[in-house]
Amino acid sequence: MPGRTVSGAYYASRMATNRTKVPRPLARQLFVETGHRCAIPTCRATPLEIAHIVPWHRVQRHDFHNMIVLCPNCHTRFDRGDIDRQAMFRYKELLRLSDPNRVAPEDPSPRAGLIRAYRLFQSEMTRWHKTISDLVSAVGFSSAGFPTGNLKPCRRAASIARAATDKLSELGDEGVAEAANYVFDWYRNWANDVFDLKPSAFSGTRDDYEDWAKERFMAFVVLHEEVCAALDLDPTELDFFEAERDNQELPEVPLGTRGFWETDE
Hints:
Low-confidence stretches: 1-16, 243-265
Strand content: under 5%
Mean pLDDT: 78
Distance between the termini: 47 Å
Number of domains: 2
Strand order of the largest sheet: 1-2
Order of helices and strands: HHEHEHHHHHH
Helix content: 55-70%
Structural class: mainly alpha
Radius of gyration: 24 Å
């Protein structure tokens, strides 16, 4: 009806009716971001609620970057304007800066250096993995002997991976160094088997492949746990493999998934 005034109660009921439920993985992500406490640093109270910084009725979607965990008191203060939206986005930014998964390149601290070295190690192992896989494929399709053209990128990737392993070992503790070198040696043994044209590197049963993949996966798991121990973090607090939070695809297992340590409670 033209000129009709919509009451606050009517508007609230419409919001409650139209708003979709926050997906459980997203809610967990938001609570973990704040350590299951109110995001306002001087508050940190419980119980907790999830708030949209730009209101739901305007965005009509649940977006991690526009959502924040607050106690009921701070949520009410935000809704009535005691805490403005710009300030709330700043509180969200402070959470991001304190997240161990988002280390600034210029951060000179030993902690940041170890995290950067860990991510570099993962990246270079992924690169090396691809060059070995490419070599396996090239051998399978070659009818003119060993495809020497594929050796150079594989050896170069191995050299860079060795440097990344040494850097991670240098910045980590004994447990990190041992686990990182185990991963490197695992890949080196695989590469050597391919270079030597060992049949096991090119054929095998499905069970053989699953055992092989599981062994590789667990090597990365052990390394992740050692890195987290060195950082005094729970394994769930640091991404198993670097990736953006907002629904981007993660590398396939065995190179990681953040959900590996999560339990359905």
